[in-house]
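lol forgot to send this yesterday, sorry. struct tokens for the thing we talked abt
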């Protein structure tokens, strides 16, 4: 009887909502009798972290049967969870990256607006101001390790707050030395965020889903360059009648928004799929289950995502890490040496 019901479901003759009720009538060998769906959904969402045993029907509907629980879902439910993460998480993180890119790149527009003249900077000094940012950016790219040490909502909020404050303080620079120090600090704060975003997104997506999301995140940089000059022109034009120099107003106008947004980061970014406020209770369980299911055998054996020194040692022994570091640093080092 159960086999006939599954065939009918696979043919699409029964609504997906009835899918769980069919499986509730079945018993999985080695597991207790299925509980009712209402009682099951009232349980704590942490039960979704139990190990799942996937089975696939010919219709493309995927059902998961955890031993000791009966959480099951169809692909459309999983796609709905992914779409919500794309809208609420990926786009928001890309927006943060765009803000950071504006704060690091507005130094050129500030020069045009009169910064070099007011601070009496030579061409050589201006070039070193640019280099100092990338020097610390390269040296502190190890900081995304902290994504696994601190709560991501706290860590990302601190990063955004830090670069927002530092970028705004550039408006108070009175000398070449003070501006160099601020650029060094700005490089550290942005290196703590951007390079670690793929690690952060891995908490919410499977491996085969990450490439597209990381690509969307990185695309925020060229998006920022498409309007940064126009925005700088508008800010400096409106500030010409103020007592503040236009280039100082530019740093303030583009730095302070990051400070404000950091407050929203604290509340909006979840620390794990099970804490996403924009998902329903069932969707949070599905989000946790699918990520657990996508982990490799080694990741399951390690369990949590805590920082481990032995993993650092393994990475230092892997030649591929050095090849990636060299290829990824060519552009940044080019900005330093040029």
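and heres what i got for the seq, position by position
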């Amino acid at each position: 009887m159960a086999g006939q019901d599954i065939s009918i479901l696979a043919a699409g003759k029964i609504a997906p909502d009835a899918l769980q009720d069919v499986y509730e009538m079945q018993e999985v060998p080695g597991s207790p009798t299925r509980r009712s769906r209402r009682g099951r959904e009232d349980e704590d969402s942490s039960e979704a972290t139990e190990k799942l045993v996937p089975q696939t029907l010919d219709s493309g509907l995927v059902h998961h049967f955890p031993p000791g629980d009966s959480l099951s879902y169809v692909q459309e439910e999983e796609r709905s969870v992914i779409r919500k993460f794309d809208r609420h998480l990926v786009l928001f993180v890309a927006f943060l990256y765009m803000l950071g890119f504006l704060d690091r790149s507005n130094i050129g527009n500030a020069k045009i607006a009169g910064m070099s003249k007011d601070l009496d900077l030579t061409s050589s000094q201006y070039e070193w101001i640019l280099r100092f940012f990338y020097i610390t950016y390269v040296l502190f790219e190890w900081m995304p390790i902290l994504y696994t040490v601190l709560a991501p909502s706290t860590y990302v909020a601190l990063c955004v707050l830090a670069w927002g404050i530092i970028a705004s303080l550039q408006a108070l620079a009175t000398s070449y030395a003070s501006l160099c120090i601020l650029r060094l600090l700005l490089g550290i704060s942005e290196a703590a965020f951007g390079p670690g975003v793929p690690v952060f997104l891995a908490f919410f997506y499977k491996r085969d889903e990450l490439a597209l999301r990381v690509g969307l995140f990185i695309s925020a940089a060229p998006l920022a360059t498409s309007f940064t000059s126009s925005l700088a022109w508008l800010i400096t034009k409106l500030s010409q009648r103020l007592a503040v120099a236009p280039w100082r107003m530019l740093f303030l106008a583009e730095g302070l928004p990051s400070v404000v947004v950091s407050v929203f980061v604290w509340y909006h970014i979840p620390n794990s799929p099970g804490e996403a406020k924009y998902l329903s209770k069932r969707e949070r369980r599905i989000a946790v289950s699918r990520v657990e299911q996508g982990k490799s055998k080694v990741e399951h054996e390690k369990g949590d995502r805590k920082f481990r020194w032995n993993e650092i040692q393994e990475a230092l022994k892997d030649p591929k890490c050095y090849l990636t570091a060299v290829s990824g640093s060519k552009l940044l080092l080019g900005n330093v040496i040029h």
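The radius of gyration is 25 Å. anyway ping me if u want another try
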